[in-house]
Design a protein that fits this description.
The complex is a heterodimer of chains A (587) and B (81). With 587 residues, chain A is of the alpha+beta class. Chain A contains 24 helices and 16 strands. Chain B has a 5-stranded mixed β-sheet with strand order 2-1-5-3-4, with no helix packed on it. The chains are: A alpha+beta (587), B mainly beta (81). The complex binds iron/sulfur cluster.
């Protein structure tokens, strides 16, 4: 295995052996360690000292189910802290089978006008990957749905790609890294934290992989791996949430709209209420029914990446049976829907498509538009106006650039006080005043407000992995800490985070994950090691953030959440600061 | 007494022609519980994961009162963008 370093200052390429200290690291664990070791904490995120690191997980590229995941890491232009953003794509599989443990983009070219493409393929004679560059300037300034098919025309049907949209070319705080899905759509994202702009700053537009002939992932103990894999498959196939035609496969993640609404925790109209009267109209069930009516048959969801047996990705069709977009995730549905007071599913689908076209993170986009609505730029509920604002972001108009900078900057420019961010990153689709544990995660995670970093929603709302009262403060530091550590491990394992639903409830599935990892690496990890390894990753991320200037004061939710009671429960966020500080103090 | 029941996710199939979240009015004897609602609608308990009354998740033996709204879910999950 190699660490492949591509220096964009002079387009030089280095293959390095994997140092001993990185031997058992992968995914988020590896990206975060490399960032900590190599990026000066005070580096400008869009300057020459920042790096963009891609690393696939431990079992990515193997036959482990639901594991074609890649972590992208760097110093975030949005938060100014460390960032890991995880995505599922054929690209993750392809990177792993080339035996590239980490791909590091560093430096940046003097010539800012030329954008580059990087083409990776397997050189059978040399027995290692081949790296070539191509001029990608012709693909800039354009809609990703327009340019990505050209990559397949040029390099063949079997390729996969990672890239940035115009948002990354502009240097927005809101710019994701895009990857293709199995149907070649530019629709899978390392969305959060502006890493698309780190890529754009280095003048890299696309990284194309043709994995033909690649040797695949080495597995030290195949029998153990197979045993683990079988346990994992059994757990996924038998759990109600992840089984075929179960919750995720039928309704997609947008099935969460109704339950968060019932629980009074669906942030509505820029976090001014926990209930949205239009919730049922935009929920996963409505999406399923809408498709059924329009297509004349039931449509179940598809996999975003090879080898996924959960298959949660939906597609929304219009009245003529033509695809509006894929996919409408819960977070996107909420951000561009309930949070903007918009209850029109087709309009939400169109906005998701536009975010994908321009390379924008849907969560940051929806939160920013809601803040602009609060400022009176357009009224709440104005779908046409919201669509127009996304176009402005894509076109780089003055207003578009202000919004593209992200929710916090837009809030400052527009004079808004209700700005739902932590460490400069906008909050996802769960209200901290109605679901206290997730507020602890938002406040304390190294990532800025991020639900995936410690998904306490599972016990607090979904009754998965135990039960916890969402409105109670009791035990929430410990709950968030345990979820944050476990998540850091899962994000390194190569599995999609959604395996957490079955493995939290089914002990043999949890053991399956550990067996798979031990099988690939030849380690002897136990369940205790999962928490230990996850905790070590968090500590490294935390140390980077501290050196970058973050203090306890950054581990707080915005003031308005402590002052304004949120209907319907009329609660404020009242977790004491000492409890927030205890999350990492006791790690 | 009258309670309004909303079914979600896979549970909609237990009442012909309703959409998820569309309230159904039920007339129940005083002292009825969430479990009684499930019995009336012929929804097997094993298929139900969470039931909400007034925004709070409640056990099946919670006694309902006139005017209550009950939201009932089969197991669901999600939460990534
Ligand atoms: S569960 Fe969904 S998001 Fe995760 S890998 Fe499968 S299709 Fe992709």
């Amino acid at each position: 295995m190699w660490i492949v370093r591509i220096n964009m200052t002079d387009r030089s390429v280095k293959f390095e052996d994997v140092p001993e200290k990185y031997k058992y690291l992968a995914g988020r664990g590896l990206t975060s360690h490399i960032i900590y070791d190599e990026v000066p904490p005070l580096a400008h995120p869009l300057g020459p000292s920042n790096k963009l690191v891609f690393a696939t997980g431990i079992v990515t590229g193997t036959s482990a189910p639901t594991s074609a995941r890649v972590s992208a890491g760097g110093k975030s232009p949005l938060t100014g802290g460390i960032k890991e953003s995880n995505a599922g794509s054929p690209w993750a599989h392809d990177l792993a089978v080339m035996r590239i443990k980490a791909l590091i983009l560093e430096g940046l070219p003097e010539d800012k006008k030329t954008f580059w493409g990087i083409h990776l393929s397997w050189d059978a004679d040399a027995g290692k990957p081949r790296v070539e560059f191509f001029d990608a300037t012709e693909y800039t300034g354009k809609d990703l749905y327009e340019v990505s098919p050209k990559l397949f025309e040029r390099f063949g049907d079997r390729i996969s790609f990672a890239g940035c949209g115009v948002s990354g070319e502009y240097g927005y705080g809101n710019a994701g890294i895009v990857y293709n899905d199995l149907a070649k759509r530019p629709s899978r994202y390392s969305g959060r934290g502006g890493l698309g702009s780190v890529m754009g700053s280095k003048r890299v537009k696309f990284i194309v992989i043709d994995a033909k002939g690649a040797p695949g992932v080495e597995i030290v103990d195949k029998a153990l791996f197979d045993e683990g894999r079988k346990k994992m498959i059994d757990a996924i196939r038998s759990h109600d949430i992840t089984k075929p035609k179960g919750g995720l496969n039928s309704f997609g993640t947008a099935v969460l709209i109704n339950i968060l609404n019932e629980a009074g925790g669906l942030p509505t109209r820029n976090f001014s209420s926990g209930r949205f009267e239009g919730a049922a109209k935009i929920a996963g069930e409505a999406l399923f029914e809408t498709n059924k009516q329009r297509l004349g048959k039931e449509l179940y969801n598809h996999a975003c990446s090879p080898g996924c047996i959960i298959q949660c990705s939906n597609t929304l069709y219009d009245e003529n049976g033509k695809e509006i977009t894929s996919c409408v995730e819960y977070e996107s549905d909420w951000a561009l829907g309930a949070n903007c007071g918009i209850d029109d599913l087709d309009a939400i689908g169109e906005m998701v498509q536009l975010c994908n076209a321009y390379g924008l993170d849907t969560i940051e986009t929806g939160c920013t538009i809601a803040v602009a609505m609060e400022a009176g730029v357009i009224p709440f509920g104005d779908a046409k106006g919201a669509i127009q604002l996304i176009h402005e972001m894509g076109k780089g108009t003055h207003m578009g650039r202000i919004l593209g900078a992200g929710t916090e900057t837009a809030g400052k420019v527009l004079g808004v006080t209700r700005v739902p961010t932590v460490k400069g990153q906008s909050m996802p689709a769960y209200e901290p005043r109605a679901v206290k544990g997730i507020g602890v995660t938002y406040a304390t995670t190294t990532m800025g407000a991020d639900h995936t970093a410690g998904y306490t929603i599972a016990p607090e709302i979904l009754s998965v992995g135990g039960k916890a009262d969402p409105l109670s403060n009791e035990g929430k530091a410990a709950l968030s800490r345990a979820f944050q550590a476990t998540t850091a491990f899962i994000d390194s394992s190569g599995h999609c985070l959604f395996i957490a639903f079955p493995i939290l409830d089914i002990a043999s599935g949890y053991q399956g994950m550990i067996d798979e990892c031990n099988g690939v690496l030849g380690t002897k990890w136990t369940a205790d090691d999962v928490l230990r390894i996850g905790g070590e990753i968090l500590k490294v991320e935390r140390a980077f953030n501290e050196a970058a200037g973050f203090t306890k004061a950054h581990d707080r939710v915005p003031e308005f959440m402590k002052r304004e009671p949120l209907p319907p429960h009329n609660q404020v966020f009242d977790i004491p600061d000492e409890v927030l500080d205890a999350v990492y103090a006791e790690l | 007494m009258e309670v309004r029941v909303k079914l979600y996710a896979t549970l909609v199939r237990y009442v012909e022609g309703i959409r998820a979240g569309q309230p159904i009015s039920l007339n129940l004897p005083e002292g009825s519980t969430i479990r009684d609602v499930l019995t009336v609608l012929k929804i097997p308990e094993e298929e139900v994961k969470v039931a909400f009354v007034a925004g709070r998740a409640c056990p099946w033996d919670t006694v309902l009162k006139d005017g209550d709204e009950v939201g009932i879910f089969s197991p669901i999950g999600g939460g990534k963008s």
